[in-house]
Write a structure and sequence with these properties.
By secondary structure, the chain is of the alpha+beta class. The chain is built from three helices and three strands; from the N terminus they run βαααββ.
Length: about 100
């Protein structure tokens, strides 16, 4: 059976604290005349803490959904990251591979 990646992306998972930190990072980079990248969010310790907690909370949900399709995790890896929505809202995503 081929491998499938199941992904969850949430626009409402990032707290007001995360959005405030995003604004601070953007302002810091602008003051230094540096370009803003998603990596700046992912590398920030405060945002990464929230992201990791969100991802770990989603893992069990992904596994339950996969079981309904008779799929099992390929490995123990859980992948996660951040993205920006169309209105600069911070989005958290998490995915796991199943077969």
């Amino acid at each position: 059976m081929p491998d499938f990646r199941m992904t969850l992306t949430r626009k409402d998972a990032a707290s007001a604290e995360v959005h405030k930190r995003r604004d601070e990072i953007m302002a810091e980079l602008a003051a230094k005349k540096r370009r803003f990248t998603i990596g700046a969010l992912f590398e920030d310790e405060q945002i990464s803490k929230h992201l990791k907690a969100y991802a770990e909370g989603c893992e069990e949900s992904l596994i339950r959904r996969a079981k309904k399709c008779d799929m099992k995790p390929v490995d123990e890896n859980l992948h996660y990251g951040v993205a920006l929505g169309s209105n600069q809202a911070v989005e958290f995503w998490v995915h796991k591979v199943f077969s």
